[in-house]
Design a protein that fits this description.
2 domains; single chain; two-stranded parallel sheet; globular; mainly alpha; 465 residues
């Protein structure tokens, strides 16, 4: 009988379903975090909010994601992927509905904060569970599709918001509560998702892990290629020790640098487009929908190059993203068409590497702390995103061009961090990519250094010095 391997198999129906169900959570995340951008101008007018209060409401979910990522990543490594996978979506439903009934801005702030906790948990689990099921050569493309669902959710949020602008006095309530609808569908689909065989094996539950693999790959499925990836315990402090500290810093910083301009622009996109000359009201929202479509196309474009080089994709993405933002900062009175083109160019360039937010944390850390690292990076990255979202209305009140310049500076910081710290993990198994015993050599001459007295040499992640 031939032996089937999880790392070497071709994607099966189960692989695709797990990826799409994980992507469903990303869709809800993108929808929830973007619909506030459509609702906020209406909410501001209803409650006569100043820019500070509007920024607090806009960033509340991001602060919640900080807490949710820090806590529930670790919880996921302790109790299992499947349980958290269902809990966070159930929370989406209840909290989405609760937004309709708030009577004061502080109440909405609290609800949005709690939603952020659930979203932070989902970010920690979605990339983890999808990567642990994905075969080696298909991991990159599958996670590109998963992460693209965030952009799809954001685009749909703007379409729904635009369509609901004339629904009446409480437009913003219906907009915010509408996120319960996709969350219900995703919860129903996620029921029956199997537990990760890697996690089961790491907890000594080999028979259950083998049963999951046989259900996916047939009776000849083998656990052999998973053994090396599960020799780690779940200890939060491990992601701050040795080689993993460097990786934790890298993932947290590059992720924050990607999200700060994205969330600032996405949350206040209608306001920004209006300040550049697009008419207020429906025209600015329609412009936002057009820009969001390019964000989706940019996210999907990562599938073309993800297996050719994670590091190269990240560097090009940061470098090219800064150019249209600099153009928006430099042009005194650009035409509406130029504004749309520059924002579209930013979206394609920046979103092309969004998949790395799920891929790098999943590949650079072993099974015992994979969700912990994912959650920690999620939390830290949202500090930057929250600062950008809270500070954006203040900066925009002063100068839209200054806001665009600051976005370009953040992209430059992300490029510099990635140039110094980004490793290359393309084509490696999760066990090899997450191995700690890597020799840090100058760029182009990195090679693994293994203890030959314990295990035979195998490829390891190449990290620049």
């Amino acid at each position: 009988m031939s032996t089937a391997s999880l790392e070497k198999s071709r994607p099966t129906r189960t692989h695709w379903l797990i990826t799409l169900y994980a992507g469903g959570g990303e869709f809800c995340d993108g929808y929830i975090l973007s619909i506030i951008g459509v609702a906020l101008p209406l909410l501001t007018a209803d409650y006569h909010l100043d820019s500070f209060d509007a920024g607090v409401i806009g960033s509340a979910s991001l602060v919640g994601m900080f807490a949710g990522g820090l806590v529930f990543g670790y919880v996921t490594d302790r109790v299992g992927r499947q349980k958290v996978y269902l809990f966070d979506i159930a929370a989406f439903i209840l909290l989405s509905a609760a937004q309709f009934f708030v009577t004061d801005p502080w109440q909405l702030t609290v609800v949005r904060f709690l939603m952020g906790i659930a979203i932070g948990a989902d970010f920690a689990i979605a990339g983890t569970i999808a990567s642990e099921f994905a075969p080696r050569n298909s991991r990159g493309p599958l996670l590109v599709i998963m992460v693209t669902m965030w952009s799809v959710g954001a685009a749909v949020a703007y379409v729904v918001g635009w369509a609901m602008l004339s629904s009446g006095h409480d437009d913003w309530r219906w907009m915010l509560a509408s996120s319960a609808i996709p969350a219900v569908l995703i919860l129903l689909l996620r029921f029956g998702t199997p537990e990760s065989p890697r996690w089961l094996l790491s907890k000594g539950r080999g028979q259950e892990a083998e049963a999951v693999l046989r259900q996916m790959l047939g009776p000849g499925a083998s656990l052999d290629d998973l053994e090396a990836d599960t020799a780690s315990r779940t200890r939060y402090g491990d992601i701050f020790r040795g080689a993993y500290l460097r990786r934790t810093v890298f993932v947290s910083v590059f992720w924050a640098c990607q999200l700060l301009p994205i969330y600032a622009i996405t949350t206040y996109e209608p306001t920004i487009l209006s300040s550049f000359g697009l008419a207020d009201g429906n025209d600015s929202y329609l412009g936002s929908v057009v820009v969001q479509i390019f964000f989706v196309l940019g996210s999907l474009s990562g599938i073309l190059v993800i297996n050719k080089g994670r590091r190269t994709l990240l560097l090009w993405s940061f470098g090219v993203s800064a150019i249209p933002l600099l153009g928006l900062a430099a042009l005194a009175h650009p035409s509406p068409a130029v504004v749309i083109v520059l924002f579209a160019a930013f979206g394609v360039a920046c979103f092309s590497s969004q998949c790395l937010q799920a891929i790098y944390p999943s590949e650079l850390f072993p099974t015992g702390v994979r969700a912990t690292a994912n959650g920690f990076a999620t939390g830290i990255s949202r500090v930057g995103a929250a600062i950008g979202t809270w500070g954006a209305p203040v900066v925009l009140d002063h100068s839209t061009r200054l806001a665009m310049l600051l976005g370009a500076v953040i992209c430059a910081i992300g490029w510099g961090t990635s140039y110094l710290l980004a490793p290359e993990t393309s084509g490696l198994t999760l066990a090899d990519a997450s191995a700690a015993d890597t020799d840090h050599r100058p760029r182009g001459r990195s090679r693994a250094r293994r203890d030959t007295t314990s295990t035979p040499p195998s490829p390891a992640v190449k990290e620049p010095s």
